[in-house]
Amino acid sequence: MRWSLSFLLLAVVAGCATRPTATDPAARFTLATEDADESSGRILQHLAQREDNAAEEIVAVSYATGRRLPRPGVEATPLVLGVLGPAFDILTLHANRIARASARIAPAPASLSTDPTATLATAQSALRGLAELRGRNWPSQSVRDRGLEGLRALAAPRPEGLSLADFVAQRQPAVDAVGALLLALVGDAPSTGLRATLSAQHAEVQRSAAALMTAARGDRAIGVGQRYVMFRSISQAMRQDPPEVALLQLAEVLRAMPAAHAAVGRDDTDGVDVYVTAVAQLGAIVEQIPGE
């Protein structure tokens, strides 16, 4: 699958989201957060499948070429999704509370069905599972703890009588902490989080494919036609975009979210629009996933 930059730009210009346009900052933030929830889930589900397929491919090529079989490891993407999914459920719950606190827009009760207690338990369990992952590119325990506390704070009901600006200000530290956790999980840089793990795996798949083609070329038992078919099949697989393409955009969404949340408290539409645009670009990537 190729994620085309020109497609992303066209999709953003055309307004790739199917939501009705909202002008109120609270409404724009809420709709964007719901879209980010859906898009991030679809992308991570797709990358989880790719991670599983890549792990199988590396083992198969290692066996076929007589190399040592890699040790089985815990796949990272499902664990990250296990945190990101519940976290976005709570963020969406909070965003809808913001929408209800704004006197200019109606609430969206269909989005308020999240059970905070169960959702927090799911996120906490997934965070514990991160301890099984190899490498030092994952968020520290302090970042995890602050993120979990942030989720607890966001899950709490809005105090009665609190204005929209005061409510946003009260919950801003929690949004900052949750945003920092999710960004650390996805990867604030190519060398951190899921971006580092899947990038390393993608590079290993490329090396394995090259080793397989080299071995096939030197095997006299394989005919010219078979080598041709193998080369075309492997080279096509090697042209897949690296996971970095989608994860970089997801990181941009997570990076923009806390600032957009603060902008809602200032009634600043322009401040929210950076986040809205990043979410639209993420949605454009989802549109290019096969079967979506």
Structure description:
It is a single chain. The chain is mainly α. It has one domain (5-287). The chain has 10 helices and no strands. Helix 2 runs antiparallel to helix 3 (76-101) and helix 3 runs antiparallel to helix 6. The longest helix has 40 residues, at 25-64. The chain starts with a helix and ends in a 5-residue tail after the last helix. Mean pLDDT is 81; it is low at 1-18 and 106-112.
Which key features would you list for this structure?
elongated, 292 residues, single chain
As a percent range, the share of helical residues equals: over 70%
Radius of gyration: 22 Å
Structural class category: mainly alpha
Q: Overall mean pLDDT score?
A: 81
Quaternary? single chain
Q: Supply the number of helical segments.
A: 10
| Order of secondary-structure elements | HHHHHHHHHH
Number of domains: 1
- Main β sheet profile: none
Unreliable spans = 1-18, 106-112
Shape: elongated
Share of residues in strands: under 5%
Q: What is the β-strand count?
A: 0
State the end-to-end distance.
12 Å
